[in-house]
Amino acid sequence: MLLVFTVIFAALAFTYINGFHDTANSIATIVSTKVLTPRQAVLLAAVTNLIGAFFGSAVAITIASGLVDAQVATMPVLCCALIGAIIWNLITWWVGLPSSSSHALVGGLCGAVLAASGGRWSSIIWSIPGKKHWWEGKGVLWKVIVPMITSPVLGFIGGFILMTLLYFLLRHWRPVMVNRVFGRLQLLSAAYMGFAHGTNDAQKTMGLITLAMVVATKAGLFLSAPHWLSWLNTPEGTPPGYLTPVAWTITHLPSWLQFGYQPPVANPQVQFIPVWIIIMCALIMCAGTAAGGWRIIKTLGHKMVKLHPVHGFAAEATGATVLFTAAQLGMPVSTTHAITTSIMGVGCAKGFKALKLNVVERIVWAWILTLPASGAIAYGFVRVEHYFGWL
After folding, report:
1. What is the DSSP track for 333-373?
2. pLDDT, tens digit, for every residue of 11-54?
3. Residue 117 to residues 34, 207, 228: CA-CA distances in angstroms?
4. 346 near 32, Cβ under 8 Å?
5. For the purposes of burial, counting CB atoms within 10 Å of the CB of 345, is it exposed (0-12), middle (13-18) or buried (19 or more)?
6. Between 168 and 200, where is the model more confident?
7. Domain total for the chain?
8. Is 182 inside a domain boundary?
9. Quick one: residue 330, left, alpha or beta (phi over 0 = left, psi -120 to 50 = alpha)?
10. pLDDT tens for each residue of 365-374
11. Burial zone of 53 (CB within 10 Å; 0-12 exposed, 13-18 middle, 19+ buried)
12. CB-based contacts of 249: which residues, under 8 Å, 6+ apart?
């Protein structure tokens, strides 16, 4: 039982760090354009992240059951996975690089499971192709690697196209009017960004905690637990009659407000995410947002390209759309990749000279190193546990 709570604590620690590491990315532009103060932006991010966390669970399901062999992912192994992700996140946060917490978590999980299985590469689910479309596939290739490449490309191209279109449409506007109008519109784009971040990033540790709960339940660790802890039992799959938080809320509204809504039929082969995990992860991430995201905000908002409200609007709208679309497809893509490349695309629409390539180069190197670095750290911790006989 102690190991279970250790994993939960480590996962929440990662979520908290993700808050001041990744959620800072989602509010960087609106702070840098001075539309909102950091305190106001944090409050906006907290509310919209919390709302977004309740809309869908495809990303959490991917982490919980679509990347590694659950039989190998024991409590000590999950602890090592989280340690690897946390250490890499702290390193990149300390030097002010907006690297990906998503890929740090995936890398840590894969590295830890690989070490625990004695180097058996088949313990990682690499590729299960979709029956009709590639985005329906499962495994690291389709859910992590392909989105890791395509999401930055889409962010860059989308930001460039949207900003170019805005330059054309607003070419006769006075700068004062542009700043006034898009200062207000950026409130909407920032809220959209926070909501999209909640639908994707807030779900990643939900999936890992759910994986830990499923493993503990199958091992019978909760059989001797007192009755008031019965809510910890998390069976594999989806129990009959289970409703997502959104579906439960809608079905409890007056009939005239349901507009004929029919809740989705439960699929017993799909892992459900307990509501208490959703609420806990969302709240902890919001707390982390308030703790120390200025290093990342400074890199994104000031060092890469000078931003005005219209640029912030274009970058946030593009980045949020990439995140939200990926979340609906169950892809744990990086908020960092989405918003950073959107800012790059917006900057390039202004002119390639506006982009500071030395900062971009450092960020790209952080992206390249994240998966192997976090995986190697987690791998090393598992080997240490093996050496001392703890695993």
Report:
1. --HHHHHHHHHHHHHHHH-GGGS-HHHHHHHHHHHHHHHHH
2. 888 888 777 666 666 677 777 777 887 778 778 877 887 788 77
3. 50, 21, 35
4. no
5. buried
6. 168
7. 1
8. yes
9. left
10. 877 889 999 9
11. buried
12. none
In which band, very low, low, confident or very high, does the pLDDT at 307 lie, cut at 50, 70 and 90? confident
Predicted TM-score of the model (pTM): 0.81
Task: Give the CA angle between residues 287, 360, 103 to the nearest 5°.
Answer: 50
Distance of CA 249 to the CA centre of its chain: 24
- Return the residue matching tokens 């689910």: 125
| Other CB atoms within 10 A of residue 14 CB | 29
Q: In residues, how long is the chain?
A: 391
Q: Does residue 265 sit within a domain?
A: no
pLDDT bin (cut points 50, 70, 90) of residue 306 is low
Question: Measured on CA atoms in the order 131, 132, 136, 142, is the torsion positive or negative?
Answer: positive
More confident residue, 252 or 117: 117
Taking phi over 0 as left and psi of -120 to 50 as alpha, with beta for the rest, 260 belongs to left
Q: What Rg do the C-alpha atoms of the chain give, in angstroms?
A: 21
Strands in 105-170 per DSSP E = none
Is residue 300 pLDDT above 60, yes or no? no
One-letter identity of residue 281: C
Place of tokens 């910890």: 232
- Supply 194's token pair: 């926070």
E runs forming strands in the chain: none
What residues contact residue 334 under an 8 Å CB cut-off, 6+ apart?
Answer: 22, 100, 101, 102, 103, 148, 151, 367
**C-alpha span between 110 and 145 (Å, rounded):** 13
Q: Which residue has the tokens 């989806």?
A: 238
Tokens, residue 75: 């409590």
Domain span including residue 128: 2-236+271-387
| CA atoms within 13 A of residue 189's CA, in its CB half-sphere | 27
* Cα–chain center distance at 78: 18
* Residue 202 covered by a domain: yes
Separation between Cα atoms, residue 78 and residue 209, nearest integer Å: 9
Is 227 part of any domain?
yes
Residue type, 53: A
- Give the pLDDT mean for 278-286: 82
Task: State the average pLDDT for the chain.
Answer: 82
- Tokens of residue 263, six digits: 């809740």
